[in-house]
Structures are given as structure tokens and as C-alpha cells.
Amino acid sequence: MTTSPMIRRRKLMVLLAVFVVVAAACAGSETGGEPAAADPATAPGANAASDAANAADFEFALFDGSLTSIASFSGKPAVVNFWASWCPSCVAEMSAAFRPVAEELDDQVAFIGLNIQDERDRALELLDVTGVEWVNGEDPEGQLFVELGGLGMPFTVFIDAAGAIVDTHNGPLNEDQLRTAVAELLTS
Predict the structure, then answer these.
(1) How wide is the angle at C-alpha 101 spanned by C-alphas 100 and 105, nearest 5°?
(2) Which of 87, 125, 155, 161 has the fewest CB atoms in 10 Å of its CB?
(3) pLDDT attached to residue 166
(4) Beta-bridge mates of residue 168
(5) What was the pLDDT predicted at 58?
């Protein structure tokens, strides 16, 4: 049975649309979800937000349905990482960079994960599979992601103990980059 030219064209358009969405979602990553090589334009500090910017008022929902804010973590620096199950770089970064650093430094730094644009069950399944145990919530429409300056996935925001945004990073971080950024955060 042959497929009509109109159906083939529709299939091609759907595949092209899927490709564009996936490429945009994982901007800055290499094939296979491995962290991209260090690039001065995306290195920690390159996208630093104004020291006057305050993240304390930003609220988000935890997966249990309760609301919290970044202010609830005040007195301790925070690293907020936006992720999605459909983003290979996000998944790789969670396991390869965030998990070891969070396990080592969770008493000194609040690690907060915010999922965007996932079905809740799919996000929770990924957390279970990766063994992530730090605080995680959701930003279903990506509103907080955009407000904080997210351009590509994954996206990480570094907040000092007073609640000021001191740095942002669009794209994946490897463990060494994350450790360096957290060390700078602890001394700020």
C-alpha cells in the first residue's frame, strides 16, 4: 500500500516539529545528554543576575501539593535546578553532577529541583529511578523558569543565604563546574 503525498508531507511536518521542540528543549547539550564542553558564554558567572535581585518571593508547589518559597530556605545558600524528564541533558546532569554534590553538601546548601512541563507521574518516576532525594517541586508552565532568566534546559540558579540571585547558568553543568559554582556561592 502506498502513502499519498499529502500524508507523507504531514508525517514529515510532524517529525520536523518534534525535532525542533526537542532541539530547543535541550539547547546547549551534546548528543547523548553529556555535558557540553566549558564555554565562556555559558560558564557559571556569565549570566549572573543582579546582586539586588531577590529570589525569596518566588513560590512553587512541591510534588505533595504543598506550596513553599525559596524564602523557606533562607539562612542557607540555595541551588535551584530546572529539569524535565524529556531533556536528556537534565537527566544526565541530575545523576552525574547534582547527586554527588548534593549528597556531600546538603547540610551547607539547599538543593531544589523544579520540574517543568512534565506530567507529575513521569517526573516522580524519574526522581525514583535516579535516586534524587533533595527537595523537588514543579513549575508546570515554566513561569518561574522564565522569570529567573531560563533560556535552555537544564537551567540552574545560584542564590546566596540572604536570598539574592548571584548567578545563573543555562545548559548542563558537569560535577566540577557545579562544585566550583557552589564553592563560590559558599564564599559570597
Answers:
(1) 125
(2) 125
(3) 92
(4) 157
(5) 83
Within 10 Å of residue 119's Cβ, how many Cβ atoms? 11
Q: Where are the domains of the chain?
A: 5-187
**Eight-state DSSP code of residue 30:** -
pLDDT, tens digit, 9 for 90 and up, residues 71-92? 888 789 999 999 999 999 999 9
Which residue has 551547607 as its cell numbers? Answer: 108
Q: In the block, which residue shows the cell 526522581?
A: 127
Nearest to 79 by CA among 101, 50, 47: 101
DSSP characters for 94-144?
Answer: IIIIIHHHHHHHTTTSEEEEEE-S--HHHHHHHHHHHT--SEEEE-TT-HH
Record: fold of 5-187: Glutaredoxin (3.40.30)
Q: Looking at the DSSP assignment, which residues form a beta bridge with residue 155?
A: 82, 170
pTM over 0.70, yes/no: yes
Locate cell 502506498: which residue? 2
The arrangement of strands across the sheet holding 155-159 comes to 67-69, 59-62, 135-138, 110-115, 78-83, 155-159, 165-170
- Mean pLDDT confidence for 157-186: 94
